């Protein structure tokens, strides 16, 4: 079967990943779609005595930020706050700016993925990384489609975005954890809109969890490529 | 030998936050004591595991069973004993306020120079460049600096940097520039005489006979971050030819 955008042949395929890191020279860390400044000075009224203050700003493709962007800011900030080891940088501020360059569906998941890449680039200490994927239940075929485009989103009966973290052992990071029971997977963030049953929700969660492993793999590869380039002169 | 050591010898072991050190790796070199020393990038977590908190290359030194993650970032976090380049941004009766690129400006005591007494102390102005040593740094307070070697009391190269030009680079590149076998500096030195100070806070000060040479050297240093040896050589060659 072919998806609407004709580049993918399976319902469970994600669009190919692209990323660039360390793009902006004024920021402390950046990945395409995102930049991070921090730990930096923070205004006295926002200062927290024992932790770093996390600030997220989401800017849309066109126009001024609206309530949807504010909702995304809150989602990203609240998901990241427990992940960032803010106790290591008390009385500082970490500012994350998400700028949409292209909007073809799955914006929130992309924002999460880009944010984590930018945080890794900035060297902010984190408990783990995260990976996000959006899926929809198509209104006509009742099929679960991963990483929907804007056109597919318009036909959706329900839309779900899931964010999962990675907890793996260093020597066994090529083996995947055996998580058949979706209910036991720890979700960092879950957002659903539309009409759906409990069964559909858990099925989506399971499918998204498997897809997020690909996101984690991509993040690992992206970081690996960057580090290898940096270390070239020492090891060549 | 466990798999971790084998991998280190043949290729770089990249870790991401969330990756844990395996139990077997801990027992590897320490037969009697289960003791290990954790360096930057690793932290013990609530569930008694050792987890990486930064993305980087996992390194291990058998001496003292030391583990750490070599990572790169642009923002500096002060650590004791490091030599850094700072800019004076403020002056008070007892301290200079020095911007070192961390989240807060650091304090440099007015008497923390070689042979300084109340009657005879150096006078620095706002905007002066100083090469200093971090004498105290912890996460809750501003860092403190000194412009002398603490054991001997001599300047040992610390103090004001006159003239020249400062560029901001990543911390990883600054550490690589400190390597005596660094390629780009060796290549540049074959063509242009210059002097340089590297701050581990990601700031590099370069001074040479003409402004043109100084800018060329700064550009070459910046460009060399992601290049391999061959590309580095041709980059320096093309810059020098344009001169």
TrEMBL record, chain A:
One of its GO terms (biological process) is rRNA catabolic process. GO terms for cellular component: cytoplasmic exosome (RNase complex); nuclear exosome (RNase complex); nucleolus. It is found in: Nucleus. Pfam families: RNase_PH, RNase_PH_C. It comes from the Eukaryota. Transmembrane segments: none annotated. Keywords: Exosome, Nucleus, rRNA processing. Residues 13-125, 132-206 form the Exoribonuclease phosphorolytic domain. GO terms for molecular function: RNA binding. Belongs to the RNase PH family. This is Exosome component 5. The lineage of its organism: Eukaryota, Fungi, Fungi incertae sedis, Mucoromycota, Mortierellomycotina.
UniProtKB/TrEMBL annotation, chain B:
It is found in: Cytoplasm; Nucleus, Nucleolus. InterPro entries: Exosome_RNA_bind1/RRP40/RRP4 (IPR026699), KH_dom_type_1 (IPR004088), KH_dom_type_1_sf (IPR036612), NA-bd_OB-fold (IPR012340), RRP40_KH-I (IPR049469), Rrp40_N_euk (IPR041054), Rrp40_S1 (IPR037319). Residues 164-212 form the K Homology domain. CDD domains: KH-I_Rrp40 (cd22526), S1_Rrp40 (cd05790). Residues 36-75 form the Exosome complex exonuclease Rrp40 N-terminal domain. Keywords: Cytoplasm, Exosome, Nucleus, RNA-binding, rRNA processing. Belongs to the RRP40 family. This is Ribosomal RNA-processing protein 40. The lineage of its organism: Eukaryota, Fungi, Fungi incertae sedis, Mucoromycota, Mortierellomycotina.
């Amino acid at each position: 079967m072919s998806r609407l955008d004709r580049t993918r042949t399976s319902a469970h395929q994600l669009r190919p990943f692209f990323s660039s890191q360390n793009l902006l020279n004024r920021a402390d860390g950046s990945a395409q779609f995102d930049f991070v400044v921090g730990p930096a000075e923070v205004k006295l009224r926002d200062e927290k005595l024992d932790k770093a203050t996390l600030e997220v700003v989401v800017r849309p493709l066109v126009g001024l930020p609206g309530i949807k962007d504010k909702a995304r800011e809150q989602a990203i900030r609240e998901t990241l706050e427990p992940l960032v080891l803010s106790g290591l940088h008390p009385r500082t501020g970490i500012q994350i700016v998400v700028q949409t360059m292209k909007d073809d569906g799955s914006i929130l998941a992309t924002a999460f993925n880009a944010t984590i890449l930018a945080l890794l680039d900035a060297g902010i200490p984190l408990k783990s990384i995260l990976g996000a994927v959006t899926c929809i239940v198509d209104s006509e075929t009742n099929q679960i489609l991963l990483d929907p485009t804007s056109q597919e989103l318009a036909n959706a009966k329900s839309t779900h975005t899931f964010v999962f973290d990675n907890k793996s052992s260093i020597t066994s990071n090529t083996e995947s954890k055996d998580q058949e029971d979706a209910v036991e997977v720890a979700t960092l963030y879950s957002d659903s809109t539309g009409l759906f049953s409990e069964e559909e929700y858990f099925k989506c969660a399971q499918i998204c969890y498997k897809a997020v492993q690909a996101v984690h793999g991509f993040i690992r590869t992206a970081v690996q490529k960057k580090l290898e380039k940096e270390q070239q002169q020492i090891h060549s | 030998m466990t798999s971790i050591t084998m991998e280190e010898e043949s290729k770089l072991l990249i870790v991401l936050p969330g990756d844990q050190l395996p139990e077997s790796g801990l027992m590897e070199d320490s037969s009697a004591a289960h003791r290990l020393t954790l360096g930057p990038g690793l932290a013990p977590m609530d569930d008694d595991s050792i987890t990486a908190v930064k993305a980087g290359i996992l390194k291990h030194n058998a001496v003292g069973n030391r583990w750490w993650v070599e990572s790169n970032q642009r923002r500096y976090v002060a650590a004791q004993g490091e030599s850094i380049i700072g800019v004076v941004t403020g002056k008070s009766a007892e301290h200079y306020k020095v911007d070192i690129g961390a989240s807060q400006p650091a304090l440099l005591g007015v008497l923390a120079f070689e042979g300084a007494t109340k009657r005879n102390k150096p006078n620095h102005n706002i905007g002066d460049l100083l090469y200093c040593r971090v004498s105290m740094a912890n996460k809750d307070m501003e860092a403190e600096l000194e412009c002398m070697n603490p054991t001997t009391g001599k300047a040992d190269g610390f103090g004001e940097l006159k003239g020249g030009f400062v560029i901001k680079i990543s911390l990883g590149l600054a550490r690589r520039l400190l390597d005596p076998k660094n390629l780009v500096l060796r290549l540049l030195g074959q063509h242009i005489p210059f002097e340089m100070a590297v701050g581990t806070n990601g700031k590099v000060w370069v001074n040479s006979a003409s402004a043109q040479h100084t800018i060329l050297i700064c550009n070459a240093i910046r460009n060399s971050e992601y290049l391999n040896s061959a590309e580095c050589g041709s980059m320096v060659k093309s810059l020098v030819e344009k001169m």
